[in-house]
């Protein structure tokens, strides 16, 4: 039997034993499930990676400048590059962040950029995940287990080491840390879908894993309260909780997991928050359309990596094109995530297509449309236990860490669809994952 096939089963057994699970809410119930691992890696050459790295750094730097601009001078809006309604109607825009400058001017400290590789080999950006991008822990621990199962693989090949992600996080947190206090990863608890990742990254970065009730604000300073009741100053919070639930005194009043008065402390410059409050304004799928323009506007450079061909019903020409070609486009609801709200026109009958058209006519800001990219399939082992290799659609989530410098983690989360007829690869939609090998020179 194929050695790699045996590895898939062994690694998945270890991941199960180590509690590497992914939680989802379905029909009002929380269920945990294994995030299936496939041992055939995605391999990216050194030359290809260099171009990807440059493009990802360029894009992330432009996005950070955009977020700062939105909450300060608003030059890109005043100069007519982006219509104001696209900014201020964004679900991620926070009036509370107006005029607030985060430590070191960084808004998106950890960016998860989703890409696919077209059949011609070119890479295309699908989404920018800036609020709370997740998934780095899975390739980290899968490779950790693979090193034990087949250590010779990593001795005999020129694969860049992916064990430095914890150090990247630690260095970035130290850089933005205020007052030399603790670095904390703030989790809502074990019933969160990515709880395993919260605890794993805390271990690897040396940060304190803190739960609701363990972080308090006194006199506008933030403290961690230990088991014995001792208080320690907190200088940096890597939050794994959405903005609106982080401070019940500023946002959702009935949030039971937030930290009262955190926003006040943040505004006074007494604590760093990762990712910064309000950075979701650049996470919006409608704003995605404008990122190539941001790169030219802020950096005076041509984009190295390109968006998928995208249409906004806000513009008359795009509006007409979408309604006239809806059956061959992908329609995305800008407020959804995790693979939800993605509709392929080719899968709808005439009645459903007309209903979708009516929604777009009624709420044009709510949707974007994209051409279907026939992106590359990758080999995976079939689920039937035969050991046969089959081809499935796969994307790549690259992780970019912005601290003193902007750095791309030389790894990534490759997700694949287990459904032969699906382009949707998200874990919440039943997908699996594999390691991403970046080859050295």
Structural write-up:
There is one protein chain. The protein folds into two domains: 3-302 and 375-438, no CATH class; 309-371, Dna Ligase, domain 1 (2-Layer Sandwich), CATH 3.30.1490. 30% of the residues lie in helices and 26% in strands. The strands form four sheets. Strands 3, 4, 5, 12, 17, 18, 19, 20 and 21 form a nine-stranded mixed sheet that branches. By secondary structure, the protein is α+β, with helices and mostly antiparallel strands. The two termini are 32 Å apart. The chain contains 13 helices and 21 strands.
Quick rundown:
The protein is an alpha+beta fold and 441 residues long.
Key features of this structure:
441 residues; ATP-dep_Glu-Cys_Ligase-2; globular; alpha+beta; CP_ATPgrasp_2; 6-stranded mixed beta sheet; UCP005522; 2 domains
| Radius of gyration, in angstroms, nearest whole number | 22 Å
Quaternary organization:
single chain
Total separate domains? 2
- Count the beta strands: 21
Poorly predicted regions: none
Largest sheet: 9 strands, mixed
Give the DSSP E fraction (strand runs of 2 or more residues): 25-35%
- What spatial form do the alpha-carbon principal axes imply? globular
Mean pLDDT: 91
Euclidean distance between termini CA atoms: 32 Å
Number of helices, counting only DSSP H or I runs of 4 residues or more: 13
Structural class call reads: alpha+beta
Please bin the fraction of helical residues: 25-40%
């Amino acid at each position: 039997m194929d050695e790699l096939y045996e590895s898939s089963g062994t690694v998945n057994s270890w991941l199960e034993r180590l509690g590497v699970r992914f939680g989802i809410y379905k029909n009002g119930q929380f269920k945990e499930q294994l995030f299936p691992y496939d041992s055939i890696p995605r391999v990216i050459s050194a030359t290809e990676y260099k171009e990807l790295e440059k493009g990802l750094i360029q894009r992330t730097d432009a996005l950070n400048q955009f977020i700062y601009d939105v909450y300060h001078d608003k030059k890109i809006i005043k100069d007519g590059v982006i219509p104001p309604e696209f900014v201020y109607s964004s679900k991620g825009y926070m009036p509370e962040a107006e005029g607030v400058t985060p430590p070191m001017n960084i808004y998106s400290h950890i960016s998860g950029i989703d890409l696919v590789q077209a059949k011609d080999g070119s890479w295309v950006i699908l989404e920018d995940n800036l609020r709370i991008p997740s998934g780095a822990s899975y390739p980290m621990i899968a490779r950790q287990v693979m090193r034990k199962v087949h250590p010779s693989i990593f001795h005999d090949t020129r694969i860049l080491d992916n064990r430095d992600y914890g150090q990247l996080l630690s260095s970035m947190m130290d850089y933005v840390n205020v007052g030399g206090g603790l670095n904390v990863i703030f989790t809502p608890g074990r019933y969160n879908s990515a709880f395993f990742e919260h605890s794993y990254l805390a271990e690897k970065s040396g940060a304190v894993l803190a739960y609701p009730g363990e972080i308090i604000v006194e006199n506008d300073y933030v403290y961690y309260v230990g088991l014995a009741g001792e208080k320690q100053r907190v200088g940096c919070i890597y939050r794994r909780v959405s903005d609106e639930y982080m401070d019940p005194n500023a946002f959702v009043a009935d949030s039971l997991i937030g930290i009262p008065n955190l926003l006040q402390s943040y505004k006074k410059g007494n604590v760093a928050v990762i990712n910064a409050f309000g950075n979701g304004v650049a996470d919006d799928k409608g704003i995605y359309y404008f990122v190539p323009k941001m790169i030219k506007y802020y950096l005076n450079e041509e984009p190295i990596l390109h968006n998928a061909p995208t249409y906004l019903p806000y513009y008359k020409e795009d509006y007409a094109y979408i309604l006239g070609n809806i059956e061959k486009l992908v329609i995305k609801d800008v407020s959804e995530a995790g693979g939800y709200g993605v509709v392929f026109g080719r899968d709808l009958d005439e009645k459903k297509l007309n209903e979708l058209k009516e929604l777009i006519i009624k709420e044009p800001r709510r949707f974007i449309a994209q051409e279907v990219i026939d992106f590359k399939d990758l080999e995976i082992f079939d689920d039937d236990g035969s050991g046969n290799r089959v081809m499935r659609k796969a994307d790549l989530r690259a992780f970019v860490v912005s601290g003193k410098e902007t750095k791309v983690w030389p790894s990534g989360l490759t997700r694949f669809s287990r459904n032969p007829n699906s382009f949707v690869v998200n874990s919440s939609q039943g997908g699996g994952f594999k390691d991403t090998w970046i080859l050295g020179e």
